Structures are given as structure tokens and as C-alpha cells.
Amino acid sequence: MDRAARALARTVLADVARRRSAGGAPPRVRFAGSLASDGLSGTGRVRPARRSRAVGRAAQGVRVVLLVGPGNNGGDTLFAGAHLATAGARVTAFLVAGTVHGPGLAALEAAGAEVIARSELRVPAVVEHVSAADVVLDGLVGIGARGALRPPSGGIVRALVEARAAAEVAGSPWPWVVAVDTPSGIGVDDGSVPGPVLAADRTVTFGAYKPGLLLPPAAHLAGAVEVADVGLRREHGPQVAGTLRLQDGEVSAVLRAPGVRDHKYTRGVVGVVAGTDKYPGAGVLATAGAVRAGAGMVRALGPAGVTDRILDRHPEVVTAGGRVQSWVLGPGIPSDGSDAGQDRRVYGALAAVTGVLDAEVTGGVVPAVIDAGAMAMLEHRLPEIAVLTPHAGELADLMRGLGHEVGRADIEAEPVRWARAAQRATGATVLLKGAVTVVVGSGVTFTQADAPAWLATAGAGDVLSGILGALLAARAGDVLADPALTSRIAAAAAVLHGRAATLASAGGPTTASAVADAVPRVMAGLLAG
Ligand SMILES: NC(=O)C1=CN([C@@H]2O[C@H](COP(=O)(O)OP(=O)(O)OC[C@H]3O[C@@H](n4cnc5c(N)ncnc54)[C@H](O)[C@@H]3O)[C@@H](O)[C@H]2O)[C@@H](O)CC1
Ligand SMILES: Nc1ncnc2c1ncn2[C@@H]1O[C@H](COP(=O)(O)OP(=O)(O)O)[C@@H](O)[C@H]1O
Ligand SMILES: [K+]
């Protein structure tokens, strides 16, 4: 606990110092600056623990409020508060439990902090203190919590969430919120948000990542996550039970750079069945993703109105049929049956993926990306080498088609649960798109948050399907030998896509075409690093 509290205090002091030197201002948050460039409070900004030292009275004059719960999480918070008080901070602790960690409380009192006992605690006073503070430490509950926060914690946090929203509307500053181990009230193991949670700008988590810090929607409330070394075994990358966020080295290991013996067919041919006269752009964008992500060749199949446009933008594309090592099916093909030719091509390709038609006819079983309209055309159980790429609305449609009464909001509230349900129901690998993209196959669940919110732009998903198609084609033999590799490749595609969006956006708006154009630079960087 001592190591945890010291690490926590060090991080708070480093944050205070950084914010002071950035603006000369106190470390309070102006809303525009408190959010990450993606508009979420720092999703995916996973950073290693910092090791600055608490020197002298580094926190002189900083107003710190501690929200202290009954367990060890409150204990960590009390000890950290004592360090901060010793460093000169004006610390006020609100005890939301009748009994709190005794030695922690003694340390805090010895350091001269103000302590408000549970019996004296009034919600308006908490709100008032928090609103005037520079830093708040949320130490109500940590990994010991179950379910939504109970009273009085729940009421206090609900009032603070409302006060934060009002401050945002009014343009008033709000304190820098540091969650101790986890934002209190998140579903630590499943990333759910069962009740009110105070959004953190920073989470200092102890020893290892907790699933809820990586999984949406709770991940959106964690801010920048820092793992403090408290003497437990350090994990390689943010891996927690059954959940993994790919690191750069793991992404580059998935990519396949060509060697001297390669030619265009060995590098992988991607067959793209995307775009209709109604939505030709989706065909162009899915193709762009595949071309830019290094396909040896792309075969784009569709009506002339689509393939002509594809050729205008990508003259290297072949518009005749033939063998492929992966399929990209469905972008820009509506599920209303309005383009019989494209529907027929999708059904034919799906027959190849599922193996229901003879290899003599189909050219053999190959991996596939099944997006948009093609997701409404599934007639057979899919193999793991098929990747469904829905957003939340499409996954809701898919699951309703399978007999589950579920809407988009339900999927957004429990994305991992529903992605897993879809994986079980269809047999396919499922890549659920969103600010945090979740990939579920037969093994671990990948959760990637590599993109700015600027990526939420029309056609971005089409580009992702093409990128994934190219990566699957490049590793088609490996994927067929080990289908569990599919989800890792899908997660790597999400990373490439997100990084390309970051590069193309540079902090401002971007387009799906620009995201595709940025992919080669991102791949080069990853392969070099
Ligand atoms: N190896 C470890 O386990 C370490 C644990 N540490 C700290 O210990 C914490 C876990 O401590 P505890 O197991 O004491 O648990 P917590 O402090 O997370 O919470 C347990 C207390 O909260 C109450 N509670 C549970 N669910 C609640 C809800 N929904 N609403 C309101 N109150 C609720 C319980 O009645 C119990 O009194 C970690 O989060 C971390 O801060 C650190 O000191 C580092 C090492
Ligand atoms: N808030 C967000 N932050 C980061 N990325 C996002 C956000 N919202 C959506 N995305 C990403 O943008 C892409 C949108 O794809 P999709 O919804 O299929 O759009 P379209 O069908 O127009 O191509 C997905 O890769 C998704 O993960
Ligand atoms: K907490």
C-alpha cells in the first residue's frame, strides 16, 4: 500500500507540475483541454508509470480533495493524501464510510489535512469543495467493488457528475480528477458502467491493468491510464485476464513484409465485392484500404459504374475474376437486394469462405471480411477465418436477426458481451467498431483504442475492411493453418487504421480517403520500429 500511495502521490505531483509549467495556471481543467483529441477523456492513452520525485513542497498551495471509501482503495488514497499534504498541498478528505483505513487516516491527520467524517458529510459541501479544488482523488472503491455505487457514494458521485456537466456548460474550470486504481463504480472485470462514475483525467492503477480500464464503455471514463509498479509482476503490455491491447511490436509481428522470393500472388490477392451504383464510393474506399495496406493485387468486382470509378482512382486494380487469398464483402452493398449482381457475387464468395461449395468451383476456402450488407446475407455458420465488422447499430441488427431483443444502446453499454454473443452465434471472428474497437475470436479479446474521434467519418469503415482484407491475404496460409490468428490480425488492422487516422487527422478533420493514403507510412514506421 505504501508503494501504491507513493506512486499515486508522485503522479499527482507530476501532473500538477506539468499543468503549471504548461500554462502557469493552477492544475484545474478547462474543458477543451481536459479531453483527449478524440473528445473522450483519454481513451487509449496508455502510458508507463512516471518516476519523478516528490521534492520539497512541490504541491504548495494546491487544493486537493480526497473522496475516501471504506476499503484499501480508500487506504491508498489516505496515504497518498498524507504525502501530498507533506508536499504542501491543502488537503481535505471526505470520509464516505463510518470506518476507513485506520493507519491511513492517522497518517493523513498527522500530515495536517482537514478530515470531514461521515457523520458530518453533506453532499452540497462535497460538491462545493470539489468544484473549488485543483485536484480530486477518487478513492471510493477499487477492485473490491461490486455493482453500481451504493449510498452515500452513489449519491455523491451522481451530484458530482451533474456539477461537472454544469461546469462544462458554464465554461467553468473543473478539478483534475485522478482515479485511484480504477474510477469508482465501473465494472472492473467487464468494462460496464452500472451507475454513476466520476470521469477521470488520469487513472493510476496498481500492478497491472484491470479489464474495465481497457474495455468500453468504462474505458472512456479512465482518462490516461498509468500502471504503477507496486512490486507485483509487470505484465508485458496492457494484458489482463482474457483481454489484450496490441503493442507496436505485436502489430509489426502480424504484418508481412515481402522478401526477395515474393511476387504479387505470394503477397496475397484481395477480392473486393463492394460498392453499387447507389454507393460506388464504398467500393473505391474498400479498394483503397486493400491497395494501401500492401495487397499484391486487388481484384475489384462489381457493376461498371463502380469498377470504372475504382480504376479511375486505382489503375493498378484488376476488375476480372480469378483466384484470391481473401475476400472483402459488403461495403456499399445495401441489404435490400437492389443490386442482384453484387448479391450474387457475395453469396458466391461466402460459399467459398464457408466451404459449402466445392473448391473446384470456388477456388478454395479463404479468409474474408464480411461488412455492411453482406452481414445480412449469412446462411451458414461461419468459420473463425471470417471476420464480421459491424458497428454497434449493425451488430444490433445482426443479433435481432438471430432472435435477441437488443438495440444499439444495449450494444454500446455492453460491447464485449454482445461481440462475444455474436462470435458464439455465428462462429465468425467479430470486430465491433467504435472509439474502442473490440475483437473477439476463439482466444483472447482484443480491445484497441488507437484512433482519434475524427475517424468517425463516412467511409472510414470501408477503408478498414480493405486494410483487413490485405492483411488476411498476406497471411492467408497461416490463418488457414491457425484460425485463431484471425482475431490478432483483425486487431492489428484496427491499429493500422487508427494510427493512419491519427496521422491523417493531425488534430483536425480528415477523410476516409486520407486515412487510406496514410496507411503505408504507418506500416513503414511499424516495420522499421
Ligand atoms: N494486491 C492488491 O490487492 C493491492 C490492492 N490495493 C488497493 O486495494 C484496493 C482493493 O481494496 P479492497 O479489497 O479493500 O476493496 P475496495 O477498497 O475497492 O472496496 C471495498 C469496500 O467497498 C465497499 N463496496 C463494494 N462495492 C460497493 C459499491 N457498489 N458501492 C459502495 N461501496 C461498495 C465494500 O463494502 C468494501 O467495504 C485496490 O483497488 C487498490 O486500491 C493496493 O493497495 C495495491 C495492492
Ligand atoms: N469516437 C470514435 N473515436 C475513434 N474512432 C471511431 C469513433 N467512432 C467510430 N470510430 C471508427 O470509425 C470507423 C467508422 O466505421 P463505420 O461506422 O463502418 O463507418 P462507415 O460505414 O461510414 O465506413 C470505425 O473504424 C470505428 O472504429
Ligand atoms: K477508485
TrEMBL record:
Domain YjeF C-terminal: 247-526
Pfam families: Carb_kinase, YjeF_N
EC numbers for this chain: 4.2.1.136, 5.1.99.6
CDD domains per UniProt: YXKO-related
Binding site for K(+): N73, D138, S184
Highest taxon above the source species: Bacteria
Binding annotation for (6S)-NADPHX: 72-76, 142-148, 181, 282, 332, 391, 462
Domain YjeF N-terminal, first and last residues per copy: 1-238
Cofactors, names only: Mg(2+); K(+)
Binding-site list for AMP: K433, G434, A435, V436, T437, G461
Matches recorded under HAMAP family: NADHX_dehydratase, NADHX_epimerase
Name of this chain's protein: Bifunctional NAD(P)H-hydrate repair enzyme
